[in-house]
Amino acid sequence: MKKIALSILLLAGMSSCDIDRFPYNSIESGSLFEDEGGLTSATLGNYSLLKGKKDESAWFDDWQRLAEYPGDNVSLSGTTTDNLFYFYNYKNIPNNSRSSRFWSFSYRAVVGCNKVIEAATEGQSETMDQLIGENYYIRALIYFQMANIYGRPYTQGRDNLAVPLKLSTDIEEKPDRNTVGEVYDQVVEDLMKAEGLMNQAKSASYATKEAAQALLSRVYLYMGENQKAIEYADKVINSGRYSLLGTEDFKQYNVFTPENNAETIFAIKFTKESDYGHGWYTIGSLYANIKGTGWGEMYASKSYLDLLHENANDAREAFIDPQYLTDDNGDEIPNVMWVDANYKYQTRPTYEEAGKLYFDNAEGVKTEVLSENMEGETAFYFVGSQGKVYVEKSFEMAKRNGYPKYYILKASMQEGEPQLWSPTVSRLAEMYLNKAEAYAKLGDTQQALDNVNIIRERAGISMYNGLSDLKEGQNVLEAVLQERRLELAFEGHRKFDVFRNNMTMDRHYPGTHLNGNDPYYEVLPNDPRVIEFIPESQIAVQPSLIQND
Predict the structure, then answer these.
(1) How many CB atoms lie within 10 A of CB 118?
(2) Which CA distances in Å does 248 have to 113, 241, 319, 458?
(3) Is the Cβ–Cβ distance between 513 and 519 less than 8 Å?
(4) Which residue positions in the chain have pLDDT lower than 50?
(5) How far apart are CA 288 and CA 298, in angstroms?
(6) Looking at residue 32, what is its pLDDT?
(7) Quick one: pLDDT at residue 4?
(8) What pLDDT, in 10s, does the model give residues 37-92?
(9) Fewer Cβ atoms within 10 Å of its own Cβ: the N or the C terminal residue of the chain?
């Protein structure tokens, strides 16, 4: 046991050069892995590789930034020397340290899983089978996410290159890149194996049969196997182990630990004692400054906020925390805000005279704020030199570089700690949304809307009685994807949801992704930068690896 613990500690202390050169040499060989105690320790070590150490980035940290920052839900308020900037603005580079670290930690965990799978014998005990199944699940999760980062969407072809499938502990075996289809096939095989082996009702902090089924539902959805996506979502739903949180509890989803959240199927458990540190180098720290902790530099995007505000009292508003300013009396300062033709925020304080609302424009000219009825809602606007300009009537906010601070709370405040969070991998709401999308693609409009309505009802907003309730020109699939965007925001889904459906990522909103030369206002699904470069350091030690275009 001491030998295993020492091995894991030594592994965690390896330099970046060691990681780059030896991604497949992570855990010592030894007979200790053959008993349940040793296998348990090794499996816990594999979970640990997903989350890293205090104040240090690891697998999930970099994966979340790779997955979430290229989407349209976030807006960065300034430039940064951190290589996360290249994920955000689609200016990918082959020597990105974060991508290299994600690649290396992925394979270190994969080989850790391979070690357990090779050493353990199935059928000896329920506990042994459970542990083997957990390692199959972890390996599948890693390969699925790697395929999505470094390989093109499955819907664009099975024959595109993805990542090498390393399925042994032999350090001399250095496989070349497998195709997207081959990696997905392996992911499905591993998850089905995991599903068959895992029979212990562990908490959501560990892989379980239902966690494997939930991930299978997503994998099949990405593959376009819609009936299977429904089948596996139903397995989770019908297990009876999970339930959607009520509307008020849902507003505090980020506060609950995985084992105390009835909706969470699997999350990577972070604790204050072992993982938190000082809280500055976490996912949430970039999204918000809470109680003096966090950078608070990346905010909810204008396009996400506009979508969220289409329905008054949407429960998902609880995850956005606007930073309003107050005057000397402690009162909020009324203003109007809009986005100009250059995608810059403009704000002006407002004042009333003779029952009318005004602001002074940039030239100091008194300008009246007018209103009109638009689809049953009051819309505000003023008439400028270019005609009618619609504005948001709100209050003055704190800004950074001119960007209003719309803090994101979904990755913060677990157990009341400012930046503590256990990242959710799968939760029950996704199962209903997987079904909704699959039904939409199968042409079953009513079933698609019924499953979307389960989520909308919990969010406290109006439900769809039929196609006539959708936005003008919107089809049922677009309505489902809109709901996925609202519900699963900041959980690492949006980029993949857009591109696997061969849609364009629309980034016509304020943010530093529009700075510099040739910014990406729109990202087409076939653009080369939809996927990351293979880390240059890996190609240096294995020249047979083919680089992405």
Answers:
(1) 14
(2) 39, 20, 12, 9
(3) yes
(4) 1-31
(5) 8
(6) 54
(7) 31
(8) 889 999 999 999 998 766 566 799 999 999 999 999 999 999 899 999 999 999 99
(9) C
> Are 109 and 60 in contact, with CB atoms under 8 Å apart?
no
DSSP state of 68: H
Structure token digits, residue 54: 């205090």
Question: Which residue is it, tokens 């500690």?
Answer: 9
Q: What is the DSSP string of 270-315?
A: --IIIIITTSSSSHHHHH--BTTBS---EEE-HHHHHHHTTSTT-G
CA distances from 330 to 90, 321, 327, 348 (A): 42, 18, 5, 19
The pLDDT of residue 55: 55
Question: How far is 118 from 106, CA to CA, in rounded Å?
Answer: 18
CA angle, 140 then 142 then 146, to 5°: 115
pLDDT reported for residue 52: 77
pTM tops 0.85, yes or no: yes
What's residue 274's pLDDT? 84
What is the per-residue burial (b if ≥16 Cβ within 10 Å, else e) of 462-498? eebeeeeeeeeeeebbebbbbbbbbbbbbbbbbbbbb
C-alpha 337/C-alpha 275 separation (Å) is 40
Identify the H or E element spanning 403: strand 403-404
- C-alpha distances (whole Å) from 479 to each of 272, 299, 452, 466 are 39, 24, 9, 11
377-384/366-374 β-pairing: antiparallel
Cβ atoms of 345 and 510 closer than 8 Å: yes
Asked if 390 and 338 count as a contact pair (C-beta separation under 8 A), the reply is: yes
In angstroms, the CA 476 to CA 440 distance is 6
Closest to 107 in 3D by CA, of 490, 466, 538, 437: 538
Neighbours of 171 (CB within 10 A): 12
Element housing 9 (H / E):
helix 2-12
Beta bridge partners of 326: 332
215 and 147 Cβ atoms separated by less than 8 Å? no
Q: Which residues contact 6 (CB under 8 A, 6 or more apart)?
A: none
Helices 97-119 & 36-51 angle (0-180, nearest 10): 170
Q: What's the CA angle centered on 165, arms 120 and 130, to 5 degrees?
A: 30
Separation CA 400–CA 333 (nearest Å): 18
Contact 545, 150 (CB under 8 A): no
454: Cα within 13 Å, side-chain hemisphere = 19
Helix (H, G, I), strand (E, B), or coil: what is residue 241? coil
Q: Which two tokens stand for residue 287?
A: 């999204």
Task: Check residue 10 and give its pLDDT.
Answer: 32
233: nearest Cα among 434, 427, 493: 434
Whole-angstrom distance, CA of residue 466 vs CA of residue 468: 5
Which of 313, 192, 198 shows the shortest CA–CA distance to 247? 313
